[in-house]
């Protein structure tokens, strides 16, 4: 299929082959290599970074965390953001999200907490979700020490991390957990059924295609559930949730040539219909996580819009410079 990519993205599209998720060991090695090639982010101000952990769910090990705290905040309480990494529920770690979390803390003024949740297939649903929820509870319980205003706490993530963020928002609502001010879902993985137009059509797109999504959902749901079958819990696939009322306001970002495009847009529309204040960022000419081509103007705009949504949604303090919201000055 021919795709009308953004002119600055088009030369890179053939080079950005999707990770082969059918082999989790090889996929993790590939993701580590990709993360290792990402350019370092240069913060405008000092960011205190430290590793810690949250108590795990019952019977599970502690959840490794990495905290990013803007030094300019001083002792004043401000917004906090739990941010969950990408990787198809199979790959990714704290290092993979390091430049992103530095950028988010630097640009929004929020204390950012990254969680290294357990991965499938060794730990299928609900392990990763429960780890993410444990990280949210830890962030809320330690808000005063972190300098976080508990009334200005958000959650976000990219791809599988975006799907987990949506699921954590559902879980927090239903369990009476920490109140969330915003959910920021960047090209989220939300629907195991893969029956939308985009999920069926995009079999050869860069970075993420239908085969990636099929493998991802198969591993994440494990032996207890079959992707697309009846009975898959909405906490695993938030698109299956019948009731989206009472959820926190949302920013949902979707890319045109992404198998997950339609599920993200549909979820955003359903949030709106349920009375949830929702903003949609839709980007023609882009593909899944195309912000990795950091020099492209559309990438800078996507990240600037995310920053703006987080600042407005959480009441942060934006930082502005001539080199605006990119994660580096080199393409990856």
UniProtKB/TrEMBL annotation:
Classification via Gene3D superfamilies: alpha/beta hydrolase (3.40.50.1820)
Organism of derivation: Streptomyces eurocidicus (Streptoverticillium eurocidicus)
Renumbered residue ranges of the record's region Disordered: 312-332
Molecular function as annotated in GO: hydrolase activity
Domain Alpha/beta hydrolase fold-3: residue ranges: 81-289
Family annotation (SUPFAM superfamilies): alpha/beta-Hydrolases
Protein name: Esterase
Keywords for the protein's UniProt record, in alphabetical order: Hydrolase
Basic and acidic residues bias locations: 322-332
One Pfam assignment: Abhydrolase_3
């Amino acid at each position: 299929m021919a795709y009308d990519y953004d002119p600055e993205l088009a030369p890179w599209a053939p080079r950005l082959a999707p990770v082969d998720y059918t082999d989790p060991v090889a996929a993790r090695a590939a993701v580590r290599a990709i993360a290792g090639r990402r350019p370092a982010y240069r913060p405008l101000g000092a960011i205190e970074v430290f590793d810690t952990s949250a108590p795990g769910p019952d019977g599970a090990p502690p959840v490794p965390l990495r905290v990013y705290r803007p030094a300019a905040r001083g002792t004043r309480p401000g917004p906090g953001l739990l941010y969950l990494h990408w990787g198809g529920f199979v790959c990714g770690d704290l290092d993979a999200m390091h430049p992103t979390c530095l950028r988010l803390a630097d640009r929004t003024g929020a204390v950012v907490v990254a969680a290294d949740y357990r991965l499938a297939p060794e730990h299928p649903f609900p392990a990763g979700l429960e780890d993410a929820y444990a990280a949210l509870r830890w962030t809320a319980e330690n808000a005063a020490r972190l300098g976080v205003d508990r009334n200005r706490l958000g959650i976000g993530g990219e791809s599988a991390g975006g799907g987990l963020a949506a699921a954590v928002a559902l879980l927090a609502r239903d369990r009476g957990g920490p109140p969330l001010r915003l959910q920021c879902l960047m090209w989220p993985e939300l629907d195991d059924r893969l029956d939308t137009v985009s999920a069926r059509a995009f079999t050869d797109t860069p970075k993420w295609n239908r085969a990636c999504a099929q493998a991802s959902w198969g591993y994440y749901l494990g032996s207890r559930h079959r992707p697309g079958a009846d009975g898959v819990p909405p906490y695993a696939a938030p698109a299956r949730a019948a009731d989206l009322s009472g959820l926190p306001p949302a920013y949902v970002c979707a890319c045109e040539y992404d198998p997950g495009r339609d599920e993200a847009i549909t979820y955003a529309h359903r949030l709106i219909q349920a009375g949830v204040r929702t903003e949609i960022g839709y980007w023609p000419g882009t593909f899944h996580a195309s912000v990795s081509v950091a020099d492209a103007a559309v990438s800078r705009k996507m990240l600037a819009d995310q920053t703006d949504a987080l600042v407005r949604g959480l009441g942060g303090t934006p930082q502005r410079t001539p080199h605006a919201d990119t994660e580096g000055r080199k393409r990856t």
